[in-house]
Specification:
By secondary structure, this protein is mainly alpha-helical. The protein has six helices and no strands.
């Protein structure tokens, strides 16, 4: 076997190695994307569960959370402060999920859940009142503000 034949065999082996490497990398990228989506979706669920646990932490916290939705004007100054913290926590969780969604880091089914949560939350008088009076103070991202404002515009007085 001369040098030319060895060179041809080397090129063939090199070409096969490149193709095998590309296939391996494609599989790894797909697996990594799936893992990132699972992690992002779990983080979103954990943040919402944290809010639920906070709201259910005591009868008093549950009462404040309920009043925040139904009768925000009846909250005392201290209760209003607590409600602000709860609202900010929920909004930050949704805001982070929207950013993750834009990056493709959430499971596609989470889109439906996220949109439904925003729609239902901002259909309540308490959320709307809070948003209109205090959202600017807490400096949310333009993406989140646009989604919430569009939701409120599409469902006025809901």
């Amino acid at each position: 076997m001369d040098i030319m034949e060895l060179g041809a065999i080397g090129e063939l082996v090199g070409g096969v190695a490149v193709v095998a490497t590309l296939i391996y990398l494609a599989v790894q990228v797909k697996d990594n994307t799936r893992s990132l989506r699972a992690t992002g979706t779990q983080q979103f669920a954990d943040s919402l569960n944290g809010w639920n646990l906070m709201a259910a932490g005591s009868v008093e916290q549950s009462r404040v959370a309920r009043m925040m939705f139904e009768e925000p004007e009846k909250l005392t100054a201290d209760e209003s402060y607590c409600a602000d913290a709860m609202m900010t926590s929920v909004c930050r969780s949704i805001e982070a999920a929207l950013l993750q969604r834009d990056l493709g880091a959430l499971h596609p089914q989470t889109d439906v859940l996220l949109d439904e949560m925003i729609r239902k939350a901002f259909a309540t008088r308490g959320y709307r009142d809070w948003w209109h009076t205090k959202a600017d103070y807490f400096a949310f991202t333009p993406l989140f503000c646009d989604v919430v404002n569009r939701t409120i515009r599409e469902r006025p007085g809901a």
